Amino acid sequence: MVRTNFDTELAKKIVKTIPMFAGFSDSELSELLERTGIYMYHRGETVFLGDEESLQMYIILKGRVKVVENSPDGRERIMAIRHSGDYFGDMGLLDGKTDYATVIAMQPSKMLLITKGVFDDFFLKNSAALQSMIMLLCGRLRESWLFQTIIGTNDAESKIRVTLARYGKTLGIKDRSGVIINTVLTHQSIADRVLITRETATRVLKRLRDQNEIEMVGRHIKLLDTFFYKNKQCELYQTLKAMENSP
Description:
Elements: H1 8-16, H2 26-34, E1 37-41, E2 46-48, E3 56-62, E4 64-70, E5 76-83, E6 87-88, H3 90-95, E7 102-105, E8 109-115, H4 116-123, H5 127-151, H6 156-171, E9 172-175, E10 178-181, H7 187-194, H8 198-210, E11 214-217, E12 220-224, H9 225-231, H10 235-245
Helix pairs in contact: 1-2, 5-10, 6-7, 7-8
């Protein structure tokens, strides 16, 4: 547990960006932080395993983690990437069951841990916070539906297009000529994400580069303006957009 160099005000600012905490007063947040633990995880360290019972909610104060699932052949498939201000483990606080995936630190990460006891004390009496959590869980369920639609599509290029677009939306840094995805995505990790072979992913990414839709900035993929224009013509993109906008 780490309490040294614990910047309470910075932690408050980060926690308050999470919708379920937005209605908390400063005094409530201070009381919450007094009852939580701060933990450091090294790069490559497992935060928790998918079949491990962990009745704690994790809020990332600094760093980045990947949410992964092991495929039947033993390969690691990245389901999501979480960074500062994101959280996970909240479902276990509600139903007491294990999570569905393993979480691994991608870089040195500092996390705020909220136990079930603290969660119950602060949330079961706060209807606004519970409503926010319900909305967030609905959003994650919808995201899961979108992901299943992506991997169920046979067109490899479409799968990679919409996946890169979603990474650009959640991890993108915009500049004058496009959006840089602020995490390193290998050909293998992209292939595992959408259930295709690495060779297929390599061919598609080369095609997108040759068509001046993406380029590499160091080890990061940059989505160029042409990418976004062509992506809007993609049938899978239009299907996902309709799903997101459906009531």
